[in-house]
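Input (Membrane transport protein):
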Amino acid sequence: MATFLYRLGRLSFRRRALVAAVWAAVLVALGLGALTLSGQLSNSVTIPGTESQRAVDLLTEKFPQANAGGATARVVIEAPAGTTVTDAKGKAAVETLVGQLKTAPKVAVVVDPFQAQSISPDKRVALAQVSYGAKAYELTDGDRQALLDAAKATREAGFTVEFGGDAVQGVPETGATEGLGVAVAAVVLIITFGSLVAAGIPLLTALIGVGTGMGGIFLASGFLELNSNTPILALMIGLAVGIDYALFIVSRYRHELKLGRDPEEAAGRATGTAGSAVVFAGLTVIIALAGLTVIGIPFLGQMGVAAAVTVAVAVVIALTLLPAILGFAGTRVAGERIRLRRKPVETTHGERWARFVARHRWPVLLVALAGMAVVALPALGMQLGLPNDATAAPESTQHKAYEIASRSFGEGSNGPLLVVVDTGASTNRQAALGQAAADIQKLPDVAAVTPPRVNQTGDTALLTVIPKSGPSSTQTEDLVAAIRTESGALENATGAKLAVTGQTAANIDVSEKLSDAMLPYLALIVGLAFVLLMLVFRSVVVPLKATIGFLGSVAATFGAVVAVFQWGWLTDLLGVKSTGPIMSMLPILLIGVLFGLAMDYQVFLVTRMREEHVHGAEPQEAMVTGFRHGARVVVAAALIMISVFAGFILAESALIQSIGFALAFGVLVDAFVVRMTLVPAVMSLLGRGAWWLPKWLDRILPDVDVEGEKLTKHLDAAPDDDERELVGASR
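Output:
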């Protein structure tokens, strides 16, 4: 592979105008396609096959008037102090608001608070329910604004009106704050390279890669229903790996220039050596992200595939467009006059650190492991859930509506459960409905059960159950399970069947499905990547060590996420506006993304150690020399990733905030504690045992030459003849 990449690098360097033109055409074509053919992104989080989704499908078929699956909004109306919503002025204000809500675009039904008797005991608060004939992601910003504007007259009359529900939630967007990470990355690149030209190239190629990937995603949204977080995850991952992959190849290119090679040869060798590592590092990320498709959760699969494609684009750009741009830049990438004679090798900070770790490997190992264990402790109390109005920003109308409703009606009013009663097989449908309502009313944590709504054919009814506890509480989860348990007894007695749906029940089902999928997914990606790392390092111990180190990084990251986003530590410093249960999708998403990124550093750092070992260096010197060559670039790459991810902590979406923090912290721990501390300590401790591989396995594993060792030997043995042969083969 290294030989093929060497040829590709030289070909791209030589045909740089053509390569640049092709990528420009691709970028423009996808951009135009995204502008003209893109569709609306979805906020929905559903999983086919769950009971809540089956109940929605049943209602869609038999009770379309119920608008199952459509967007909903809860409208909380609070009278001024000293007045009520039931006096003449209050009643008029509520009726005016209900009339305005009915005229809002795409609204199907508005439930009048007086007809539904949703008036608080003190008569000061009324609760109206708005149902849309469209799903939440189908609502435009204008539709949402029209809903909010309907309260203008009522507010002018002195009433407080706040809105909750998924109809109010807009599609999360990236803003200027996320660009801060890119700015910090630029500073790191300038410090690393000491050259504006060299620093600008990774940024340029990363932005082109992200633009290409994002264009493809938005183009696909015109034909597929994509989750609104899909492009944001792709942007986040694409920027980080795009900059890092270019950084590794540009660093190697500068190294080759300083050895006195001409620019075309330097580009070829950089692509053949560092490019090989980029390919395998990219493959680990792609495997981890694409693996999200096999766990049966569509929206996570979409996010994983989109991010994986963006990573693949970043790899291809690093292997083709980057050498072409190096062709335009030439020796200016070096940032100084190229010296043909090598300077004496100086002791670097990386080498000093590696020797320190080797001398004190046991204390360093124990301190690092103990520190990770302490940080991981909060993960033992992790609670999972999906966002609701309680976790919205404190100043948002959703959070205010949640607080008023909780104070006036109880927390359960913010998470009503919809119970579908299928009486098609019942001989006495009315009696079956009565028994269903009575059985549910007897269950613990039930505040109220509304009278049933029956479809036109009379074989399907809908009950609304108000829990006493909030939508994210364990009591509500237990109530959903208890109602579902009642279905068997009801069917035996009356022939009727129960099913629970609604946003709260759907969130519970999704969270359970995600939790169940986490361990199988972890086993899948770890297994596949373990095999890949065995191919790269031709060792059983190194991949095992890399995997164990990754698990430690994940545990520590989970602990930090719980401490910040669940317990509320450092929220003011980080700009986190609300706390609550950890997003259910975060652990499995973090496992996939962080594993791929962690293996990047493993590949780039340890391949050089293996190269020194293969060349006959003693284990200690092989570790130190490999660390000296790789440490500076890995540190720069980690700082860039941390900067890019940390920029997303300032986003408005709680999910994007938590993903940005988790990835930034995870990379911090994995790069500086695991790869830069534990790896040299363990490699020093194991010595030659680190490279142990059974002979039978050595015979069957293909030699992929990720370090480009064979290529380098081949070129150095007879540079003139062999280079002409290789270049000729690429023409």
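The chain has four domains: 1-41+179-336, 66-168, 348-393+517-717, 417-501.
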